[in-house]
Design brief:
The protein has 2 helices and no strands. The chain has helices at 2-35, 41-145. The protein starts with a helix and ends in a 9-residue tail after the last helix. This is Tropomyosin.
Length: 154
């Protein structure tokens, strides 16, 4: 942050210097145009150089402003990207928690199902044992009673 502040300070100072030089050159140019003074070649060369430098300064100022706008846009885009990344991470964590909860629920349902199956098998074994006991008792009764076996459908 400090580097950015120092960088902005330096850019602002440079822009201020360039603006001041540009104003000075424009003033000189206006005076020359109004007064239409004839000068020697050296003075003319210096004035031409100053005029060229003023145009260069103006172009550079525009470039600095463009770069500042691009930098601001890049900073804004980076902040937006960080925000989207945080939102995506939060959504991913929420999805992971939902997946864990669903997995736990499925595991619990599986345990309950297994318990019911064990209970069902135990009842089936009990029914089979009682059915065998009933058949045995019927056979004893038939043997003692001397009757023919009844046909059973089960």
């Amino acid at each position: 942050m400090e580097d950015k502040g120092k960088g902005n300070e330096r850019w602002n100072a440079a822009i201020g210097n360039l603006t001041e030089m540009s104003a000075n050159l424009e003033s000189l140019q206006k005076i020359l145009l109004k007064k239409a003074v004839f000068v020697d070649e050296e003075t003319f060369a210096k004035a031409s150089l100053a005029s060229e430098q003023a145009r260069t300064i103006k172009v550079l100022e525009q470039r600095v402003e463009t770069l500042e706008r691009e930098l601001d846009a890049a900073i804004t885009a980076a902040a937006h990207a960080r925000s989207e990344k945080r939102q995506a991470e939060a959504a991913q964590k929420a999805a992971e928690l939902r997946a864990q909860e669903t997995t736990k629920e499925l595991e619990n349902t599986t345990r309950v199902f297994e318990l019911h199956m064990e209970e069902l098998r135990a009842k089936q074994a009990e029914i089979a044992k009682r059915d065998n006991d009933i058949k045995l008792l019927e056979a004893i009764i038939q043997t003692l009673g001397g009757k023919e076996p009844r046909s059973s459908s089960g």
